[in-house]
Design brief:
alpha/beta, 21 strands
């Protein structure tokens, strides 16, 4: 007797049972025990991040922002189920199991790193973040990371990711076969053909990955898109979009590397001493907050100096900032220290310009000479002499932070160097280190109480120590009889964040606590009763300001900013951006306002700095949408043009440009 068509259809297993038959029970358990926990951990971490930015847990927006992680992890499970259902031979399965555990470990570490990145810096990692690996392998950089994160917590997290590889081995006691590399003892015929498994797995994974890549319906796609999906998506979008609207390709004329100084009737070859204070934000000084007594020396100095009260760094990173102020151009927008490469400066910088005018030049820092390839950068700036931690005698001085020794170690050697010039003009630059993470103060320096936050309090005391250093330098020059013929410029490289807007440290702190810096200029015969400048200026103006104060003209090219003595005519746009350039940027449309853009990682912000200098009240609703769009376009075009200018400079240096 033959079965009827109805009986045949009734006896055929359903789709769910056929999918279940793809793997033996023990293999299903092994795979899910390995791949489901990372998914759950990722969703928990994402929930923590979403709650931190005010998303209501359980709301439509919450589930909308989870869709990328959910779809991505389901695609991973689908892929590995398909792979193990196809590979049946023991030797091949062993290789596949090894690949699975390597993948699981890398995935787990990425999930942990993503959350730690957010926990420490309030940022989501992207391609620029991963390029930081070129710096992270420096010992000093690792020490900085350890200073910010709880070392035991990081260790436990990473050890847990490694140990989790053994979880399926320990728990798979109720299903057979226990080992994923072991084929079933009595294998059943496949419910689908190999071709259908391959095509079905590929189709389902493609659909899920596409869903994972889709933007949120609500907002902040870059913040919530799975990191493994986001980074290739960024690269694809960059290729598709090309250069932003308004982009103007740079030419050789845009690179001021053939400039020279020309003497005029105003020229006076005075000495120049440029003091750059590490992490010295204006809001942490007495100049920016009169209730603080952190900088009494600078406050006294301001009485006989020009004080730029609205000075901002272009990038809140030390090496980028030193290039900006020394070279009169915006730095390359990257995290790879490309400024240390030949042609990476895209400018003839102030030390080289003055060297051509008969000046002796020297760069002094108390940090180690190799951090962020500082030795190569200083050489590129054109300094004759470079003094770093390795150059000084250490007796009587304390190591501080993770990078070097206390700043007073530079005072004696630098004064000796200056006095040895015997009347020849010189240009000297100092870079301090004491206010860098971990804010370790020298032995014997008295600590004051400013705040109950221990790190913040140590930082403010480090600012006070650096202020004392300024006093020692100027006092030393006065005692040596050199001050009357010396121009002193005192500024910060950037500020420092202490969660005023959720972020720590400085490199990606785009608010005033990260960008705004003190800027004082004391020059013989000028501003004897003090003067204030309230125009918005950037540290890109420091090179042309030095040239202006010395009475030279510039020939053979044009720098990208003008002297702050001519602040009204400084070229626009005035833009600052994060070290991680595609995370955040600031646009200063006038002397009052700041527009902050976060590249879809968070909503834009807008502040009236004249009424709200600490940026506590976001008034983005008062800025028309078309204005926001225009500012975004201008920032993107400016960054793209800056990147293209430095790319062209490097090609010219390598002889590869037309």
């Amino acid at each position: 007797m033959t079965k009827t068509d109805t009986e045949v259809r009734t006896d055929r297993p359903g789709l769910a049972r056929r999918i279940g038959a793809l793997l033996a029970p023990g293999h299903w358990f092994y795979l899910l025990a390995l791949l489901v926990p990372p998914m759950l951990v990722a969703l928990i971490f994402q929930t923590i991040r979403l709650s931190a930015v005010g998303t209501t847990i359980g709301s439509w927006a919450y589930f909308d922002k989870l869709h990328s992680d959910i779809a991505f992890h389901l695609a991973i499970i689908c892929f590995w189920v398909g792979a193990f259902s196809i590979v049946r031979r023991r030797g091949s399965r062993r290789a596949l199991v090894f690949a699975l555990h390597v993948f699981f470990t890398m995935l787990s570490l990425m999930i942990i790193m993503t959350h730690l990145f957010f926990y420490m810096l309030d940022l989501m990692p992207n391609m620029a973040s991963f390029k930081l690996l070129t710096l992270v392998f420096q010992v000093a950089a690792v020490q900085i990371i350890r200073a910010e994160a709880n070392a035991w917590l990081v260790g436990v997290a990473f050890a847990g990711a490694i140990a989790a590889n053994f979880f399926p081995h320990v728990t798979n006691r109720w299903f057979s076969p226990r080992r994923l590399s072991q084929p079933p003892a009595d294998p059943q015929p496949q419910p689908f053909s190999t071709r259908r498994i391959v095509l079905g797995t590929a189709a389902i994974c493609a659909i899920l990955l596409t869903i994972s890549a889709l933007p949120n319906i609500s907002d902040s796609t870059n913040f919530t898109r799975n990191r493994a999906v986001s980074m290739p998506m960024d690269a694809i979008e960059d290729q598709i979009e090309g250069q932003p609207p308004g982009f103007v390709p740079p030419t050789k004329a845009d690179i001021p590397d053939q400039t020279r100084l020309v003497e005029t009737a105003r020229t006076k070859k005075r000495n120049v001493v440029f003091i750059v204070l590490e992490s010295h934000g204006r809001v942490s000084t007495t100049l920016g907050d009169p209730s603080l007594d952190t900088t009494p020396v600078m406050s006294e100095l301001a009485k006989s100096s020009l004080e730029a009260r609205r000075a901002f760094t272009v990038v809140p990173n030390t090496t980028k900032s030193m290039l900006t102020s020394n070279c009169g151009v915006a730095p390359p927008p990257d995290t790879t220290n490309s400024e240390a490469r030949p042609g990476g400066l895209a400018s003839k910088c102030i030390a080289r310009l003055l060297d051509e005018q008969g000046y002796d030049t020297a760069y002094f820092q108390s940090a180690t000479r190799t951090f962020e390839k500082r030795d190569k950068v200083v050489r590129g700036l054109g300094f004759d002499d470079f003094f770093a931690e390795e150059s000084y005698k250490k007796d009587g001085f304390s190591p501080v932070n993770t990078l070097g020794y206390e700043d007073d170690i530079m005072v004696g050697p630098s004064l000796d160097w200056a006095k040895a010039r015997k009347g020849k003009p010189f240009f000297m630059e100092y870079l301090t280190v004491t206010a860098h993470t971990k804010y370790v103060l020298p032995k014997g320096f008295p600590v004051k109480h400013y705040t109950d936050d221990v790190k913040h309090n140590d930082y403010l005391n480090a600012v006070r120590y650096q202020d004392r250093f300024v006093g020692k330098v100027i006092d030393g020059f006065e005692k040596a009889g050199l001050a009357d013929n010396t121009i002193f410029i005192v500024t910060g490289d950037h500020g420092e964040g202490f969660r005023q807007h959720g972020r720590r440290l400085h490199s990606d702190v785009i608010w005033s606590e990260g960008l705004q810096i003190p800027l004082l200029i004391k020059a013989p015969g000028r501003w004897t009763n003090g003067a204030k400048l309230d125009h918005t200026v950037q540290n890109m103006s420091i090179l042309p300001t030095i040239v202006d104060l010395l009475g030279f003209d510039v020939a053979g090219g044009k720098y990208h900013a003008s002297s702050i003595l001519d602040a009204e005519n400084n070229p626009e746009p005035r833009i600052s951006h994060c070290w991680n350039v595609d995370q955040c940027a600031a646009y200063f449309p006038d002397d009052r306002h700041a527009f902050l853009y976060f590249y879809d990682y968070r909503a834009p912000e807008y502040y009236d700095l004249s009424k709200d200098p600490l940026e506590k009240h976001n008034i983005i609703e008062t800025l028309p949408g078309e204005k926001q769009d225009a500012y975004e376009r201008e920032m993107k075009a400016w960054v793209a043009e800056t990147r293209a200018t430095h790319d062209l400079s490097r090609r010219l240096a390598a002889g590869r440009a037309p």
